[in-house]
Write a structure and sequence with these properties.
Helices cover about 15% and strands about 40% of the residues. By secondary structure, it is mostly beta strands. The strands form 2 sheets. The chain has a 6-stranded mixed beta sheet. It is globular. The protein starts with a helix and ends with a helix. The mean pLDDT is about 85.
Length: about 170
Amino acid sequence: MQSSQEKALAGNKLELLVIQSGESKLAIRAAAINRLRRFKLAEIQPLDNQTIPGGLGHIPSQNLPVLHLAGLLGLDNSQPLDEATCQIIVTEFQGQDVGFVVEQAHEMERAELQDIHLLPAVIEQLLYKPAVWALWQPSPENIVPLVDLSLTLNSSEWQQLFDTLATAPK
């Protein structure tokens, strides 16, 4: 059986959104993104009992939980968010829209499949699957990790987030 990552590589090219998260350059499959939007920090309200690493809160008007991608991945996110460049990547998980804050969305790229290198299967079998599923090497001196947003939390963390969101003021 093919993994979702292997299925994503079925065509000749893979469309990727290149982003800045913390100090790191990463890429996300374009097909995983519902929309990309700017936001004001004041829109994000804290959630009660927020214990998820990288959890920022939610945008009540859209019932949208908001997570900081750099925090989820354990990347350096010591710099304050800059509203001028930060954006929210909105994706869907278990029927619920979820927002991931990134420091900057750069551009869409079409990666040649020969430049995508899947991580070894042994990594996929670990108890805690990594959110990075492959590496893209657009040039010999440049390697960009590919992130699967659905793997940034484990199933109990996703459930905790959705339970907390369900009781949050609208």
